[in-house]
Specification:
The protein has 10 helices and 9 strands. By secondary structure, it is an alpha/beta fold. The chain has a 5-stranded parallel β-sheet with strand order 7-6-5-8-9, covered by helices on one side. Strand 5, helix 6 and strand 6 form a beta-alpha-beta unit. Helix 1 packs across helix 10 (about 275-295), helix 2 packs across helix 10 (about 275-295) and helix 5 packs across helix 6 (about 165-175). The chain binds phosphoric acid mono(formamide)ester. Phosphoric acid mono(formamide)ester (CP) binds near residues 52, 54, 257 and 258. Phosphoric acid mono(formamide)ester (CP) binds near residues 53 and 256.
């Protein structure tokens, strides 16, 4: 895999290979010295045009654990605020000769554009409502670590699917690994079109007890004109909140974060032993180590001889 832009770039075997590599890296995470020299001398740029806590911190930690040099750039406080375009920002950063660029953008398709402008490997850390492939991979890793396999698993993805890049990536990844996926929520947030991704569509949580895993999604209030999607948050919560009344004692609970506590999830289920939310966050580091290793493993390691260093990579012209 040269770039990771979408789960569509992967098949079952390549997902299994990334998860196996992540499991190897997890054994290092338990050691007193958690660093490996694998990406020594490589430069990873984290380019975040949208807010993030989990993805940004775990990509940074993953690159550092593999001994890469890391440059973090967020749009706030950068020349993006002065109007610099993505293309010009990438042209500027390319002067440093990055080996990989990790990008989060509010615009669907921005990582694919970036891949055409740089010789660095590009990893999509979430683009608009399109894809969040490393989130789906870490969710697969979390489930595999807990249950051994996703084959035959019944997974319900509940809530605001309409605005969710996580949902699209997870439906594809879970299905590739053999799970049966149901999506549930009000028709305004879970359109029947999701059936085209291979999911069963439900507009109530009445049958949710049949699920092995309930994967709740955040109500993306910043992306919606609330009145046009749900009558009120109180109404939404009354019908679709995952709480201890709806979640059975043997069902596992997941959420990509950040959580709107008291809206899509009640406080008691977030803090219950059924919740895998903290395990998902921990999995983010080893899975992103595996992804960075995977996209950089095929490219030549930098020479120790300063005369043989690659020249700064200029962006391709259109
Ligand atoms: N799940 C996720 O992408 O979280 P962040 O927005 O905090 O990175």
């Amino acid at each position: 895999v040269r770039n990771l832009l979408s789960i569509e770039d992967l098949d079952r075997d390549s997902i299994e290979a990334i998860l196996a590599l992540a499991a190897n890296f997890a054994t290092v995470a338990d050691r007193p010295i958690k660093k490996l020299p694998s990406l020594r001398g490589r430069l990873v740029i984290n380019l975040f045009y949208e807010a993030s806590t989990r993805t940004r911190s775990s990509f940074e930690l993953a690159a550092k654990r593999l001994s890469a040099d890391v440059l973090n750039l967020v749009s706030s406080g950068s020349s993006v605020e002065k109007g610099e375009s993505l293309r010009d920002t990438v042209a500027t950063l390319s002067a440093y000769g990055p080996d990989a660029i990790v990008i989060r953008s509010p615009y669907a398709g921005a990582p694919a554009l970036l891949a055409g402008w740089t010789h660095a490997a590009v990893v999509n850390a979430g683009d608009g409502k399109h894809q969040h492939p490393t989130q789906a991979l870490l969710d697969c890793y979390t489930l595999k670590s807990r249950l051994g396999s996703l084959d035959g698993l019944n997974i319900w993805i509940v809530g605001d699917l309409l605005h969710s890049r996580v949902a699209r990536s997870c439906i594809q990844a879970f299905t590739l690994l053999g799970a049966k996926v149901t999506v549930a929520g009000p028709p305004t947030l879970v359109p029947d079109a999701f059936a085209a991704l291979g999911a069963t569509v439900r507009h109530s949580l009445d049958e949710m007890r049949e699920a092995d895993v309930v994967y709740a999604l955040r109500m993306q209030l910043e992306r919606m004109d609330q009145d046009s999607h749900v009558p009120s948050l109180r109404e939404y919560t009354a019908h679709f909140q995952v709480n201890s009344r709806r979640l059975g004692p043997r069902q596992l609970l997941m959420h990509p974060g950040p959580v709107n506590r008291g809206i899509e999830l009640s406080g008691e289920v977030i803090d219950s032993p059924q919740s895998l939310i903290t395990e998902q966050v921990a999995a983010g580091v080893v899975v992103r180590m595996a992804v960075l290793y995977e996209v950089l493993a095929g490219s030549a390691a930098p020479s120790e001889d300063p005369d043989k260093q690659p020249r700064a990579l200029a962006p391709q012209t259109a």
